[in-house]
Amino acid sequence: MNVTTETMKKPRVNKSTNVRTLVQIAMLAAVAAVLMLVEFPLPFIAPSFYELDFSEVPVLIGAFSMGPLAGAVIELIKILLNFVLNGTMTAGVGELANFLMGCAFIVPAGIIYKKHKTRKNALIGMVVGIVCMAVAGCILNGAVLLPAYGKAFGMPIEAFVEMGAAIVPAIDNIFTFCLFCVVPFNVIKGIVVSAITLLLYKHISRLLKGNHAVQ
């Protein structure tokens, strides 16, 4: 049986590619974890415990360059690293919310972009991701995250409604809180992250996988 040189090289190429992918995932997750430390509230939109950060930028770049699964892995490692670097002040609820909202945003965007890697598909993917994040945020905050946060800190749901009503008078229950605070917050975050990613991705992708830049 003859074994060609090309056949012998394939395992080495695959191994090298896998190692490179792991290194890139680790690098982007580390950058995301550091960015997660820098956060600020949007008091004109939502109560101060909702804070905006730019940690989804390297995650989205990873999802575009390596696929949606890699993006989800980067998101998870980012959260784990943040626990090590910063601990938690929300009994883990804030970190869980960040992970779920991040995946709701970057996974749909990554799936759409993976099908055809063009600027148009990147934009479509980002818009779909923002919508998914806004819808997921509304549902998960109302049904799971806010009740869990309230239970962890001994706060009734009415307390969140009162905080929201101080910003938007039309808020009078948890549903309107999610509709008028959570949804706008996630939309703004998605738009900001998408804009920064579009500015940076073409240049960073050359370092990651030079032939996968947005066209």
Explain what you see:
- It is a single chain.
- The protein has a two-stranded antiparallel sheet with strand order 1-2.
- It is an all-alpha fold.
- The protein is built from seven helices and two strands.
- The C terminus is likely disordered.
Write the layout of secondary structure elements.
Layout: H1 5-36, E1 39-41, E2 51-53, H2 56-66, H3 68-86, H4 93-115, H5 119-153, H6 157-167, H7 174-209
Helix pairs in contact: 1-2, 1-3, 2-3, 2-4, 2-7, 3-4, 4-5, 5-7, 6-7
Can you describe this structure in just a few lines?
With 215 residues, the protein is an all-alpha fold. The chain is built from seven helices and two strands.
Bin the helical content: over 70%
Number of helices: 7
Based on CA atoms alone, the radius of gyration comes out at 20 Å
Strand content: under 5%
Judged by helices, strands and strand pairing, the structural class is: mainly alpha
Terminal CA distance = 44 Å
The major β-sheet equals:
2 strands, antiparallel
Q: What is the tally of beta strands? A: 2
Identify the overall geometry.
Answer: globular
State the low-pLDDT regions, or none.
210-214
Question: Widest sheet: strand order?
Answer: 1-2
Q: What is the N-to-C succession of helices and strands?
A: HEEHHHHHH
| Rounded mean pLDDT score | 88
